[in-house]
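Sample entry (154 residues):
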Amino acid sequence: FKERYEKHLNIMWAAEMFGYNYACAHLSIKTKIVNDMQARDVDPSIPLDSPDPPAMIHMGRAWFPKEHVDAAEPFRHTEGNDFINGNQRAVQVFCKCNMTASTITPWPIPESGLDWQSFHTLRIMHDGVKHFGGIPENELFRHKPPDGYYWTKN
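Predicted structure, serialized as tokens:
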């Protein structure tokens, strides 16, 4: 499957979606498709005080707002400027794809100006590490570039 489609699609980005669909089919679980349930990290910014926020978040990237550029500098990820609203949001401070994603959590976060996606991504990461401890590096199942892009070897 990978060899057949890899030249047209990077299917590794969607491996968990394939797994979900296959598992549901195997267990005869039906899924109803509903629009606007999830906010992606690269979607347009949602105000933190939105009266109708999405039910889910796709955590992957986070930005500090323009008024907090100095606080963002130690965590800057320059490749985020190419994404939708990257320049509007100012400085990308986290990317799940970055080599430091499991070891550096931008903290403290600004008290004002964060969008909904960035606030919840950073808050959940910080609180999770505080509660459960750091994320262990595991070279058996995850490997960093240039050999791979964080997918399992098996």
